[in-house]
# Entry
Amino acid sequence: MIGRNDPCWCGSGKKYKKCHMQIDATKGNTGVTQAPDRRIKSAEEIIGMRKAGAFNGELMDYIRPYVQEGISTEKLNQLVHTYTLDHGHTPACLGYHNFPKSVCISINNVVCHGIPSPHVSLQEGDIVNVDLTTIVDGFHGDSSETFMIGTVSAEARHLVKVTAQALIKGVEAVKPGRPLSDIGDAIEPFVNSYNCSVVRQYTGHGIGKKFHEHFSVYHHIAIDNREIIMKPGMTFTIEPMINLGDYPVVTDRHDGWTVRTKDGSLSAQYEHTVLVTEEAVEVLTLTPSHQSTDTIITMPE
# Structure
């Protein structure tokens, strides 16, 4: 049942009375109060999301040992592409709004959407984010991890650890009946307390049969998500992008994809796809042996 002041079922974040109420009213009395909430997955859809998430976690486990000094980002792309196709699945990034590769690989001051290249190899001291999205039987799994290559600076290690812990804070904030804004409320003060900043231009998102669905998940304190209530069956990504400097970013004018920190500072990111359950949260993009908040990421030492 949807009340006048409840969030609209369409995921706009607006109150129902200010969004679809009048449109639904034209369908008859049942349409007004029983419009389906498209943000909530059916039991069958949840099975599909679990399968997609499990393979995505398997893919991250596969690629992790290859993220080493000397390998080109294009070689990593080829490995991800081949492994995904060999298992009968689809790399979601390839061709998405004309993105040219099967994985996003972002190094040092690149915040996100880094394009793999045969001319760029990982170097000692780099931090590099590998962002994987896969389609399994029509459903999406999405996760990312930041790696430290060899010996990195103390500042870089600090950033990566804060970012890893920020993801854990965000996952732990997922509880049915609570506002979606709890995630950003948990992440930003924690990050700021360690003299880092949360990127605001890019967010988490609803996910399912579409790569990006229905609503955004802010990692900073924002009023926009306070009317969206987390409910069992909702699936979305939590993917804080954390900068060592200030949060503004810029997009490369030549390739239209590569996003860098405006001040040139280092950036890191961790991401998982999650499901809101009746009790709390299930992290979908993991292999079964890692299903706890203590092991949802490979925590840097």
The two ends are 48 Å apart (CA to CA). Residues 29-34 have pLDDT under 50 and may be disordered.
